[in-house]
Every structure is written in structure tokens, then in C-alpha cells.
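Dear colleague,

Following up on yesterday's call, I've attached the two folding results inline so they're easy to grep. Please treat them as preliminary; we haven't cross-checked anything against experimental data yet. The first protein's sequence and C-alpha cells come first.
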Amino acid sequence: MKFEEITLSPNIMSGLQDINYTELTELQEKVIPAVLEGNDALIKAEPGSSKIGSFVIPALEQIDKREDKDGTSLLVLTPNPEESQEIDELVWAMGYHAQIECASIDMDTDLEEQKEAIQSEVEVIVGNPGPLLDVCQDLKFIFRHVEMVVIDAADEMVALNLQDKIQNILKRVLSDHQTLIYSKEVNDDVKELTKKYTKDPIAIGFEDKPGMLTEPPKVDQNLTQGYIYVPNRMKITTLMAHLENTPQDNCIIFTASKRGTDRLYRTLRKNDMKATSLHGKLSDEKRSQRFANFTNGDVQYLLVADTPAAELDLDRVTQVINYDVPNDPDEYRYRANLVGSGTASRIVSLVSKQDRSDINELENSLGQAPKELPLPDKVKQKLEERKKQKKKKSRGGKRDNRSKRGSNNGRGKKKNDDLQLPRPSYDKLSGGKKGDAPKDQKSGVIGLIKKLFS
């Protein structure tokens, strides 16, 4: 796409021509239209002029259209001086014909120049959080006309523990404004930063993570939530017994790994149950086909691994089973949201010994704790059979031990007696139990030498 294809003012177009900007990059094609529409956004981007242009171009366009250019309109926060100065230079070049002024407030710039730029309220301020906050606090300065805030390299900001400085700077921005956050990657701290400073943001470049910026849905109060404590080494047995008790359900079963889905798939097929599986290693074509088989009703059970529930576009499921309990309460909420509302619908978790801490965390987080469900009768019967077998084995073992003891009391004892060696006489040992050697006889090595030579 060429810049002529998007609506930009003649002044900004002239600035782009001066620096040989003719075509939008892939990132700019995604970002600039969204920014011009006024969206807050979290944007995935690597450092470089393409990223800088994606927010500078629409911001300068907004500034050039303003009738009153008094006051700072664009505030950019970036973690290092080099990036701040690069943004400053690009703003100056692109905004030259629009007479847009910019200043960089960073660790390498003269302090008096920084104060003068802040007080004169140039249209664009770019700064490192530490120096910018120091200058603003020293001048007791407030931003009253900002229309756009850009938090650049949010992941680096978080790594440098700059969240408090960012917060204190943004407290000084009193005007309503659009917020753009750029990051190479997203972690919990970046998500928190985005939720705190944006309104209904869109994600650009992170589309592979559905639900990343939205609050997880609340669990329906009418939904039946339960869990079954699974006896040791009886998880598949418990699952199959539970499925037999709920034969009509259209069911999704979540496991922790592809290996788990493969194992369950073989078990279900062996019992003539129609099932299919989704996991991270499937091609898009196979994934779509298997998903369609489930949504069309061709199969009754969908086994899922390595796929967040937020990615599953379903609304006709009567039961969700956590074969492995999720350790993230939000993931549990998204799974519960797949189930149709009503008391006939349910989400059930199979809780083994190692899952108990996870189910306890869920209970604390959800507010509405799942209820413990009774163990299926079939599992109880197998447990009883297992106990009986153990008792038989233990009795058989005792008899074997008794017979072994009896054999030791008979012939075995004679043989041992016959094989016993004669005990040595202490009389012949120097310094033995029956007294010392005669006085004229030396003991030890010296006595032995004398005997040899006598």
C-alpha cells in the first residue's frame, strides 16, 4: 500500500516524501488505519523506523489538523536515550512542513534545554521515564492537551521496573487521550499495564492469543460444577465410568498433553465411542476438519490438548471434563463458558492426588466452589476387588514365610552345623583371652622373628 492511498494532509505527505517514505510497511498497514480510527491498542513490534512511523505518522496527522496547536499533543515514553533521540529526529523530519516541534527528554540531553522544551509546551515530547518525571516534578508541570500517549517497548519498561515512574507521569496527563502500547512480547505485567492504561484495546500482531486483553467470563451461577477425587492409578477407569453415567452428553475433554489425548482417543474408540482430538501439532486443515466433525455432531467427544478454551468457538456443549485440572483459574472460566447455561449442563474435574492444590486454588479464586461428586459405583467395585486381591497376596506371603522358617529348623540347620568351622583356640594366640604369653617369650612381630632364628 502506498501513502497516497490513505488520507494524509499535504504537509505530512511532503514530510514523508522528504525522507523517501513511499510505501507502508506490513506493520504500518495494520496500525495506522486503526490509530486514525481512534482505537487504543497493544501492538507487537520490533525496534526500528517501521514501528516509530506507525505511531508518529497518524499522531502528526492529528496535530496538523488541530486548529489550536497550543500544548503538547503527543507524549511518547521509551526506555533508552537512543530510541528517544531517534523518535525525535523522525518527528522533526516528518513534521517539518507542518512546523511541528519536538523535544527529547533523556539522560543524554542538557537539563536546561529539557526544562525549556517542557515549559514551552512543544507539540511532541519524547522521554525516558526517569528524566522526564524528574523534570516534570521539578517544574510542577501538568499535561492538559495530550491527545495520544505511546508507551514504547513495554516489556523492557517492565524488566527495568519503570511501572511506578510511568504511573506518576501519566497522573500528570489530565486530558482524555488515545493510548498505544508497543511490546515485543506479552507477559502478565505487560497485560496489567495494558489493562490499566487503555480502554477497550485491540491487539495487533497478537491475534494468535484470543482473550488476551479481555476479562475472562464469569461462571454461570446455574452451571453445575463438580469434581471427583480419583483413586490412585484409576483416572481412565473413573472417566469411563463417569461417561457411562452421562451417555447423552455432547462433551469436551481437556487434557494436559497430546500424549494424554492420544491415550484417551484409543480408549474411547476401543469402547465404540465416537471421538476426535485437537492439539497443537495439527495442521490448520486437519484442525478445521476435526473441529467440524464435532460441531456437526458426527462425533460425540472432543479431546483437547495445547489449545486454550478461548480459541474454541462453541456454544452447544452439555459437558466439559477437566481430565487434567487447569492451574490457571481464568482458563477454567473459559472452559466453563463453553458449556450451555442451565442445570442440565456441567463442568467436572477429575482430581488426582497431584491436582489437589490446583482444585483448592480454583475454589479460592472462583468464589463459587465446585462440589465434590461421589465416586462412580463401577470404580467403587474395582476398588473393592483391588483390596481383596491385596489381602490374598498378603496372606499367601505370610504362609510362604512360615514354610521358609520351618525348613530352616529342619535339614537346613543340620547342614549349617556340619559346615561350621572349628573355633580357634585363644591359648595359641599371643595376648589372647587366657592370659599373657610367658615372660621369657616375646609377643608380636619381635617374638616371631626370634622363633624363626632360634
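Below is the second protein, in the same order (sequence, then structure):
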Amino acid sequence: MSNKWLILSLIIVIYLPVSIDATVLHVAVPTLSVQLSASANDLLWIIDIYSLVMAGLLLPMGALGDRLGYKKLAVIGLAIFGFASLGAALAPNAIVLIITRAMLAIGAAMILPATLAGVRKTFSDDNERAMALGIWATVGVAGAAIGPLVGGYLLQYFYWGSVFLINIPIVIFAIMAILIIIPYQEQNTQQKWEIGKALLFIVGILLLIYAIKTMFRSSGEFVIPLILGITGFIIIFSFIKNELNSTAPMIDFSLLKQKVLAMGTVMAMTAMISIVGFQLLMAQELQFVYDLTPLKAGLFMLPLMLASGFGGPIAGWLVVRFGLRLVATGGIVISSFSFFGLALCDFLTSPYIAWALMVLLGLSVGIALLASTTAIMSTAPVNKSASAGAIEGMAYELGAGFGIVLFGMMLTVIYSHNIVIPDGLLPAQIGLVESSISEAFSVAKHIDRPELSEQLIYAAKEAFVNAHEFVLVIAGTLLAILSYFVWQFLPNKVEAIKHN
């Protein structure tokens, strides 16, 4: 094996844990709710803090890599990732796990651009670089695909913290291998690194999401979340305004003035919202409602993620043959149809129908993601292709984060309005039961009357299934509406997009 292919093998080892960690906790919601006494709101933060922090840090960490060299960036990122993994595995409560997951995202935001830069600088031949980048992208998709399966297996046989402990030997091996294999790289001290703006952007996003989550609780608290939400919005608005007026912006938001590129960005976010939000909803239903183990839930969900990986290559052929507008619109329409079908499908009694619909959803989301990439990169001027790629990457991560938020909030609201509380519960118990199905199951375990406990579990399952149906119908409807705008704004053929 030549040295460059050895380096690519090392890059794969480094990148795989980062991609797996994005989805590894999706099947862990019931376990974490019991082991850490985590509320529904805590669980959403535990899962989506990873994507949200990464979304804000990818660009400045990429600039830091240009300044330090990707070798040093990878080593620092891996060290942070390893220590954060240990902290997450030993977390005594939900708050500590949220903080350590955010630290994991900081490390991941360093590792990801370091691996990509490593591929680009190691392979000088265009054909070899294209093959290496294809392998890199496949690792990202495969890691996200097997994340729930890895999480399910470890939760089935080991302590829940094992989903993080497996990162540590990989990190130690990777750091040693990098120091030995990767050649020395000179630093570029002229490269600017504006971490302050990125951190401010993250604060704005987190404040806005915290406000949204808090306002949807049943406690009735409204004023403080509203103030925090407005503050977050002002921070985000100010950040975008400053970037538009800057002569050297971290993110060139002026590109979004082009309708095709803006629609491509919307499609990228929507596709990620759909796949990640549905995956979280499904993981909970399979375990809470259908009593599947985490491992069986991960296996049941595997066709969805595998199909999403095949959607991109299929879409590439379809775009060339039928044009961007038809393929993009068709992909979103099929996603909408899949959601409507899954809303009416009983996963337990009709598993083959569910798998067929999940395959359709995965393929259509993969097609939509490729179509969004085509729209974004074909529209952007050649000298701004890096900025366009950065916008697309941020859209992916924000879409993943917002998918958990939006699906989680809709699920919570509809569930709380649908659950029929059995007689005999205390007022404090009723508030918990109405907040989420995980809280209802926790309350049921502490009820001394078996018949009341069974009634409560049945009521919670019924409410969750009804909420699942409503959420997917709403999602399918919104996708159907989006398909109209995609048809209106996207060009018919990729060649028709003008560079300017």
C-alpha cells in the first residue's frame, strides 16, 4: 500500500466515529430517560446539541486548519473528542451529558475539515482525488447509517456509556498514527481565525431553540422564553447583517440572493430535517410503543439509512437524464408520499410495507440532497465555490439539529393534547405524564396499582401513535407545498444555470 492510500485509511478511521456519533443516540432515548432521569426536553438537547454546535464551528475550524495545518488540527480535535467521550460516558446526569456532547461537537468540528483537507492535499491526481473524496463521503453516510445499529447493539449488551467509550481506543490509535504517518506541515500565520463571530452565532441559535422548546412546554412559562427567543433572533440577524457588510465574510450570505442557490439551501435543510426528525420519532415509537429492544429498533431502521446512501448516486444519473427541476421536485414529492404512507402504517403488523416506505423515503431524501448540492454548486460563481460549499455544510448540520427540534416539539404538543389521563393519578404525576411518553412510562413504574399502571401505559402508547400520525401528515403536507416552490424556482437543466 502506498503512503497516500495509507493516509486515506487513517482518515477513514478518524472520520468514522464523528459520523457515527451524529446518530448513535437515536435509539438511546428510552434508556437515557430511565438511567439519567432525563426529561423529554433534556433528551432533545442531548441529541441535537451535537449538530447545532458543529454547524456554527465548521467554518472557523476549517480556517484554523489552514492556519495550523490539518495534522495539528486533527490531533487537537481528536484529543478533545476523546476527553469529551470519556466525560459523556461517565455523565451522572442529563446536564453533564449535554455539556460533554457539545464538547464532542467541538472536537468533531475540528476533525471533519481536517480529514477533508487531508484528502485534498494528499491526492494531487484529479481522478485519484475524486475517488478518495467519494470514499470520504461514503464513510460519512455509512457512519450515520450504522449509528443507530451500533448504539442498539451496545445498549443491548453493555452500559449506555459504552456508546462513547468505544471512541477512546480509536482516538488513541489515531493520534499515534497521525504523529507517525502524516508528514510535517508548515503553519500559515497569515490565515485569519475569527472564532468570536462563530461563538456568537451559536449562542443566537441556542437561545432561539431554547425559547422554542420552552414555550411548547405545558408549564405555561412564556415571558422569559420570548425574551430569550427575541435576543437569539437579534444576535442571528446582526451576525448575518455584519457578514453581508464585511469585506472578508466568514459566510458569504450574499450568495443566497440567487434564487436557485437559496432554494438549494432550503432543500438541503428540509431533507436533513425530514430524515433526522423521522429517525428520532421512529426510534422512540419502536421501543416505547412496540417494545422492541434498542438493537432490534436499530435493525428495523437500517433500510431507511442505507437507502438514503444510495439515493445520491441514483440522483446523479437522473439529473443528467431528466433535468434538475424534475428530479428535485420528484424527490420531494416521493418524500411527501412516504410520510403520508408511514403515518397510516403499523410497523409491527405491516413491517414489509413500512420498510418499503422507508426505502422510498431514504432514496428520495438522498435524491433531494444531491439535487440541492447540484443547485448550490452549479449556481455559485467559480471563485465562490468554497463559500457555497460552506453554506451547504451549515445547512446540513442546521437541518439535522432543527429536525430533532421541530419533530420533537410537534410530537410533544400533539401527544400532550391527545393523552387520556386515567383516574387515580396525583396532580404532580399528571403534569409529568402529559409532557412525554418517557415520563409517562417512568410514572407508571412507580405506581403501586398494577391496573392503573397498565391503563397509563396504554393511554401513553395510544397518544404517541396518534401524535406520530399527525406529525407525519403535517410533515408530508409541508413537503408537498415545498415541491411546488421547487418546481417554480429551479431550472430544468443543470446546463441552464448561469455562472456570474
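For the second protein, one point worth flagging: Residues 195-249 form one domain.

Best wishes,
A.L.
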